[in-house]
Design goal:
This protein is an alpha/beta fold and about 425 residues long. It has helices at about 5-15, 65-75, 95-105, 120-130, 140-150, 155-165, 185-195, 210-215, 220-240, 255-265, 270-280, 320-325, 330-335, 345, 350-355, 360-365, 400-410; strands at about 1-5, 35, 80-85, 110-115, 135, 170-180, 200-205, 245-250, 290-295, 300, 310-315. Helix 1 crosses helix 9 (about 220-240) and helix 10 (about 255-265) runs antiparallel to helix 11 (about 270-280).
């Protein structure tokens, strides 16, 4: 995840001062931020859902007491913050009890919701719970969003929920995953953000997990991705330069880091070397390092897109022990610096900035953890190849294995776009 606005504010301050701002980056937490899918149940069946969620009971989910015990374990492991997600976390009856317990332990707590279930009563409870942030998923304007969410009226319900939360002074942001099917609505969503008083825009590239993998052939083309990034970068710079209380973040494609540096070289060349230094310290992809996932039944994964790869279960082992265990070949490679990537990624001059990008896309396409990321939208010239690369990986339509097909049918019948 690239927190663009954090760096844009540094650039704006440098422009104002005429020098690079002094100060050291504070030390990071000892443990990862944990995205916790407290329940897999959801009232929607979105096309790009990595959890293959549906409105049904999923057996084996952690009980309230098990979840509280896990929170204490996470605190002991140095985890600084939790992002409570689903499915739709508001469908879990103890969501507010668990949020309160996390805050009692001193953990930062955010909520990730589709927004459709937020009425006045729930908005009051969300405000009273003291969430640091509420991220609301939205994929486009009314027609596009309803099609993505597979529910007519979903857009209106989400916007209504958004308004109820902003009216209560909550810090709310929009979460948007771009594909070729909804890229045309990005400008309107950026305007919607301001019109509705949201202060954060999370731009996610499509990752190949769950239904996102099933629909991977509809991933945005590279030119479309670059156009979108140009728009996001310009918007983030404008907000930082004008002192607006807005945050722009991108995720699920760590080529965004090198692309940001190229933007700075074009627009703010004096400060580009300092920005590059900061982004090398950032290090790109955080899977298995600074971000972790716990699913609804307590399985631990390197991030939310790795539900097909289980590291251990919090019912059986302490989280800290699972997270430190490098006997798993995926975790060993994710924690290795540099990562043992191959293909274009191995030859890329930006490897220390992007960290080898998103391993899930490579694995879902090839079965190899360390193959080049087919979602990298940088050209051979931009990544420093002096000779043309061998034929690049291309995104082929999803062909399910028998086990994946069974899992998909259990969750929801897959309806082609």
């Amino acid at each position: 995840m690239l927190r663009l606005s954090r760096y844009m504010r540094l650039l704006a301050r440098a422009e104002s001062l005429g020098r690079w701002p002094e100060g050291r980056t504070p030390p990071g937490p000892t443990g990862p931020v944990v995205i916790w899918n407290l329940t897999r149940r959801c009232n929607l069946t979105c096309k790009h859902c990595y959890a293959l969620s549906a409105d049904m009971h999923y057996p084996g989910e952690l009980s309230t007491e098990e979840a509280k015990a896990t929170m204490a374990d996470l605190k002991a492991a140095g985890v600084p913050a939790l992002i409570l997600s689903g499915g739709e976390p508001l469908l879990r009856p103890d969501i507010f009890e668990l949020a309160a317990h996390a805050r009692e332990l001193g953990l930062g707590v955010s909520l990730s919701s589709n927004g459709t279930l937020i009425d006045a009563e729930r908005a009051d409870r969300i405000a009273a719970a003291g969430f640091d942030y509420v991220g609301v998923s939205i994929d486009g304007l009314r027609e596009t969003h309803d099609k993505f969410r597979r529910l007519q009226g979903a857009f209106d319900a989400t916007v209504a929920g958004l308004r109820l939360m902003t009216a209560r002074g909550l810090k709310v942001g929009l979460r948007y995953t771009m594909t070729a099917m909804n890229a045309h609505d990005l400008p309107a969503l950026l305007q919607l953000m301001r019109d509705e008083g949201a202060t954060k825009f999370y731009f996610s590239h499509l990752n190949y997990a769950g239904r996102g993998n099933i629909h991977r052939a509809k991933d945005a083309h590279f030119a479309m991705t670059r156009d979108a990034l140009d728009r996001i970068l310009d918007r983030a710079w404008q907000a930082a330069r004008d002192g607006l209380d807005e945050d722009y973040v991108t995720g699920n494609n760590d080529a965004d880091g090198p692309y940001f540096i190229a933007w700075a070289r074009q627009h703010l060349p004096k400060w580009a070397p300092m920005l590059e230094q900061r982004l090398r310290a950032w290090g790109g992809n955080a899977s298995g390092l600074n971000v972790a996932n716990i699913d609804n039944v307590g399985d631990v994964h390197p991030d939310t897109m790795w539900w097909h790869h289980r590291l251990g279960n919090v019912r059986e082992r302490r989280f800290a022990d699972i997270w430190a265990d490098t006997s798993d070949p995926l975790m060993a490679g994710l924690k290795q610096q540099p990562r043992p990537v191959t293909g274009r990624c191995a030859r890329c001059i930006h490897l220390s900035i992007c960290g080898g990008n998103t391993r899930t896309r490579a694995h879902q396409l090839t079965g190899d953890f360390w193959a080049e990321d087919p979602g990298c939208y940088l050209t051979d010239e931009e990544i420093g190849l002096t000779e043309p690369a061998a034929e690049r990986l291309t995104v082929t339509p999803f062909r399910s294995s028998k086990s994946t097909a069974v899992e998909a049918r259990r969750a929801i019948p897959i309806v082609p776009a």
